[in-house]
Amino acid sequence: MRAVRDVRDTRTGRDAKTKDEGVDRPGVWSAYGVLLQYLRKRAGLNQQQLGDAMGYSLEQVASVEQGRRPAKVAFTAAAERALEAGGVLQALQGEVDRAKLPRFFRNFALIEAEVVSRFSYDPLLVPGLLQTEAYARAVFAGHCPPLSEETIDQHTEARLSRQKLLTRVPLAELSFVISEEALRDPVGSPEVMRAQWQRLLEVAALRNVEVQVMPSRRGFHPGKNGPFVVVETHEHKHLGYFESQGVGCVVSEPAEASAFALRYGKLRSQALNVEESARLIERVVGET
Q1: Which residues, in sequence order, are bridge partners of residue 119?
Q2: Per-residue CA distances from 96 to 28, 31, 37, 113 (Å)
């Protein structure tokens, strides 16, 4: 049975009833909501007045204050202006966005955001850091068991937020080896795939990013055992990461992390080089 929370309707002063989805919400969403409520009351505003000042509805403000919905970047920017918050809400936005990620990935997302370098091999899908919004949404829409539209929206937003790593300052050294099968396997409509291929070409032009394609029929190579990531932290510690069927694992033992790095070096040598990979992607675009 779903829990029912009391919500104060600040237009009438009466308590309104809203249904909670019965799902544990990330603590940072609640913490953000408590802070938002404190700043609103300090400014002498009720929820309706704050919503009017921000261009949001009473329900949207109430949902964020209660931690039932995460604040989006635009919401936070509007709240910062309306409440003259001095950046305190903005300081939480990264954590709010990270909490939209699937639970199994959140710990690695913290590591990933601060890395010096990140190298990955992806045999089945275009890697999340390079996905367009439409491609990412199609991936989450195919989840089994099915995800709610709200969860699909949240996971998609969080994935796109991670892509700040591509242009973050200081720049991180990024390398992606993607199987040709992942490029050709349709995810979404032909229009979605065409936009995704174009996105790969755009990102590959960044000076800190290398995109290589592992051609089909290459034969056995170290990536046949599945996708994986190798990162180097600011402390120059090397870590590995892999996931399957909604389970993720960070590899921190030095010998195992070293083995991941060796395998990735072999993959880079066996894949098409950067220029050859770009030409292959361009050919794929031309075939559609």
Answers
A1: 175, 230
A2: 6, 9, 16, 14
Tens of pLDDT, residues 189-236: 999 999 999 999 999 999 999 999 999 988 889 899 999 999 999 999
What CA–CA distance (Å, rounded) separates 174 from 117?
6
Span 8-66, pLDDT tens digits: 443 333 333 334 444 568 899 999 999 999 999 999 999 999 999 999 999 999 999 99
Matching residue, tokens 């510690």 = 237
CA torsion sign for 260, 160, 287, 184 is positive
DSSP code, position 129? G
Distance (Å, rounded) from C-alpha 257 to C-alpha 251?
Answer: 6
Quote helix, strand, coil % in the chain, to nearest 5: 50, 15, 30
Phi-psi region of 20 (alpha: psi -120 to 50; beta: other; left: phi over 0): beta
Q: Is the peptide bond before 123 cis (omega within 30 degrees of 0)?
A: no
Contact 106, 248 (CB under 8 A): no
Three-state secondary-structure class, residue 235: coil
